Amino acid sequence: MTTVLIVDGANVVGARPDGWWKDRAGAARRLHEQLLVADVPHDVVVLVLEGGAKGGVRAGRDAHVRTVHAPRDGDTTILAEARAAGERGEQVTVVTADRALDARVAGVGATTVRPTWLLDRL
User: Fold this and answer.
1) Domain enclosing residue 22, as ranges
2) Neighbouring C-alpha atoms within 13 Å toward the C-beta of 15
3) pLDDT (tens digit per residue) in 7-42
């Protein structure tokens, strides 16, 4: 079974007070670079970016990391990605600190972990 890790880019970047708000695109680029070499037990990583962060990483696939640009809000895109992966029979984990999103993705069969879980592996 394929395992998919969907990353709420805004939540993960926002979990580190490193000045990300001054350069959202740069913060997204650094996260993407870290995900490319991260020690995570998943076959595929989906990085969802929204707003100004989208300027840091082009949409598309780089190795096992697929970057998705949210056309509106990130939560809607994350939920759609989780639903689609679940419908394909994949095991889905979402990285987010958003409790409302946590409940929504649980409704489509995904589990969640907090940003600190991912940050510990970067």
Assistant:
1) 3-119
2) 17
3) 999 999 999 888 888 999 999 999 999 999 999 999
Amino acid at 75: D
**Beta pairing, strands 65-69 & 111-113:** unpaired
In whole angstroms, what is the distance from residue 24 CA to residue 38 CA?
20
Cα(18)–Cα(72) distance, integer angstroms: 26
The total number of structural domains that make up the chain: 1
Instruction: For helices 99-106 and 74-87, give the axis angle rounded to 10 degrees.
Output: 20
Predicted local confidence at residue 67, as pLDDT: 98
| Residues forming beta bridges with residue 95, ordered by sequence position | 7, 113
CATH of the domain at 102: 3.40.50.1010
DSSP conformation class of 71: S
Other CB atoms closer than 10 Å to residue 70's CB: what's the count?
A: 22
